[in-house]
């Protein structure tokens, strides 16, 4: 990995982490503790939450008719989402070891926990589960696709596209035939940043691993 690109990719990951932390920040003091990744509220807070829960009939009654009518269309997407989840999971478990590409951790993308909130009624909890699952699966599949693209086709597009993944900063320039042939084999193996991140996430592993992997 070229030093400038290595530094850029590290900066991108750091910025992504900062954005994630900023999103998680609240304007008031947190009202829960985390126990093994699960939010735990005090009995007093739970009681206050239950008092804020809306009755199901009121949620249905106050919903516009067209919104209710389109609900089956929205939820019909659970079928392709579940199939996508299944197929990309099977794909990476079979193929990534062959390609020597680090697997994507599904648990880091598919997070479902908002249904534990007592101030949500059954319909609201169902909606939250669906949104968490759908967006998580799409992000999970996108990362698998990004790593696959780096292995099979690490070439930048001629046209700037929205939503491009960060691994494209490693790719060869569009039209650079010499660079592609020269760097193709090397780019297929440039996953040190991901491997270092995975190692550093293991308890007791030194953060110096990331530095050691840099050129």
Major pleated sheet: 2 strands, antiparallel
Oligomer: single chain
From the spread of the alpha carbons, the general shape counts as elongated
Biggest sheet: strand arrangement: 1-2
Mean pLDDT: 83
Task: Please name the defining characteristics of this protein.
single chain, 215 residues, mainly alpha, two-stranded antiparallel sheet, 9 helices, 60% helix, 4% strand, elongated, disordered C terminus
Describe this structure as you would to a colleague.
The chain has 9 helices and 2 strands, in the order αββαααααααα. It has 215 residues and is mainly alpha-helical. It has one domain. It has a two-stranded antiparallel sheet with strand order 1-2. A hairpin with a 2-residue loop joins β1 and β2. α5 runs parallel beside α6. The C terminus is likely disordered.
How do the helices and strands line up, and which of them pair or pack?
Blueprint: H1 3-24, E1 32-35, E2 38-41, H2 43-52, H3 56-61, H4 65-76, H5 78-99, H6 122-152, H7 177-187, H8 192-200, H9 208-213
Antiparallel strand pairs: 1-2
Helix pairs in contact: 5-6
Question: Could you write a compact summary of the structure shown?
Answer:
The protein has helices at 3-24, 43-52, 56-61, 65-76, 78-99, 122-152, 177-187, 192-200, 208-213, and strands at 32-35, 38-41. With 215 residues, the chain is mainly alpha-helical. The protein has a two-stranded antiparallel sheet.
């Amino acid at each position: 990995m070229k030093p400038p690109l290595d530094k850029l990719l590290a900066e991108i990951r750091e910025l992504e982490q900062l954005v994630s932390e900023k999103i998680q920040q609240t304007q008031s003091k947190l009202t829960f503790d985390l126990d093994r990744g699960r939010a735990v509220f005090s009995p007093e807070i739970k009681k206050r939450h239950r008092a804020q829960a809306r009755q199901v009939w009121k949620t249905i009654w106050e919903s516009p008719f067209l919104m209710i009518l389109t609900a089956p269309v929205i939820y019909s997407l659970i079928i392709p989402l579940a199939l996508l989840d299944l197929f990309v999971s099977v794909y990476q478990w079979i193929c990534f070891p062959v390609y020597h590409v680090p697997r994507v951790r599904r648990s880091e993308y598919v997070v479902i926990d908002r249904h534990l909130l007592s101030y949500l009624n059954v319909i609201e909890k169902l909606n939250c589960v669906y949104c968490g699952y759908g967006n998580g699966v799409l992000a999970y599949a996108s990362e698998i696709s990004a790593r696959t693209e780096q292995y099979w086709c690490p070439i930048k597009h001629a046209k700037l596209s929205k939503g491009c993944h960060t691994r494209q900063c490693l790719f060869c320039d569009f039209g650079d035939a010499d660079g592609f042939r020269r760097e193709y084999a090397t780019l297929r193996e440039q996953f040190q940043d991901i491997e270092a991140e995975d190692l550093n996430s293991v308890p007791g592993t030194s953060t110096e691993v990331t530095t050691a992997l840099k050129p």
